[in-house]
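A student in our group prepared the protein record below, which I am reviewing. I have pasted the whole thing underneath without changing anything:
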Amino acid sequence: MACAGGMVMLDQTVVAVALAPMARGLGLTTWVMHGVVLVYILALSAFAPVGGMAARRFGLPATFRAGTVLFAVASGVCGLAPAGAAAEPFVLAVRAVQGAGAALMIPVATTVITELYEDHERGRALAVYAGLAQVFFVAGPVVGAVLTEFLGWRAVFLVNVPVAAVTLWVVSGVQRDRAAERGPLTAIQPLLVVLALAVLVFGLYRCGDWGPADLRTWTALTAGAVALAVAVRLVLRSRQPLVDLRLLGIWPYAVAVAVTFLVQAPQLIVLVHGTLFLRQAVGLSVLGTGLALLPLVAALATGTFLSGYLLDRSRSIRLPVLLGLAIATLGAVLWTAALSSRGYPWQVPGMVLAGLGMGMPVPALSAELMRVVPAHKRADASVLRQTLRQLGGAVGLATAGAFVLAANDEAADRAGIIQAGAAPAAFVVASATLAAALLFAAAKLPRREDRAGPTIAG
């Protein structure tokens, strides 16, 4: 399950190094370059509750296999994308399908781990799962660089096909572990949620192109916000909710999910825009860009595994979360300041600190937040956490993309190039988000673990 979840996380960042060659080969504009990553993450976050609903209705193994097949087929089709006028809508549509396939896999993985392990083992098991998935996530640019350098950018997508085939073979002997729930499937809730999130994130991103005062920006943001409010109300009033939003009434759980949301955004921003800056502004080769990101990748992996050690020693999530966010904020600021020189050595200290700090909060939060949720709600809690975590990445990347589009020239946008002067805008967004996460976590994370049983508000 950790390797399957890792494959899904890997596909968020493995395309980062391939974006520039992909844009040249297919004639993609800058906003579509962002869209290749953004659409996948948005589909993953929007459809994750659908994956949880499908798992309850059809069973865990069947849902996992269906998601793996959909993910593999979409990956293969994306790797065969044609050049020309049809390239942009083709790639964006197929990436959305790929994200939907991933959304069927992720809820199953977290649910299986939650159900298989006893209370005294569950936290450690979830930490291992989150840590391995995080390693896949941060290794994406390096893996993408090697594949793109030696096999071309299409290999970044085509490699998922044999990996998915191996995954299906490994789980082929798994039988239905428990009876699936019966009852009608809910169609209105997922459709409204997907539509609301798509319109809201699209309006947020294109704000950088249209302008914050443009009627199109306000129309998209207002329509998305209204649709999302209607969707939330519909879910809360439903007897068969798409996802149990009442879990956010458990205060420690809500705080942990909010911090996870805020941390996911800058992680994705620096991975994507750090890669594009090294490739387009510094002028490194594809393989050179992947190697140049090794300090970031190694620091993120170190922070991920250091998180569990600090959690075990302190018995509190405050130490790994607050220490990690403080280090990450400092690193992001130093990295942002070093961009103006375009010299790679000056970027390394900030890169290392940002990676080390950003790797520390999520595993600790993942290991601890299930403790405050009732046992019979842990599967729903894992789906909701994963949904909001991925949504944080989508919102963060869309916000950073809006600032970059606003700072970039139109000619550069059409050519799929992010100018050196526009790239720091994305890092400013990442730095500000990390600072906000640090302040929020310092104020809201519990200072002492509450060992009393959890209750659900509302």
Notes: The chain has two domains: 2-173+242-444, 187-241. The radius of gyration is 21 Å. Residues 450-458 have pLDDT under 50 and may be disordered.
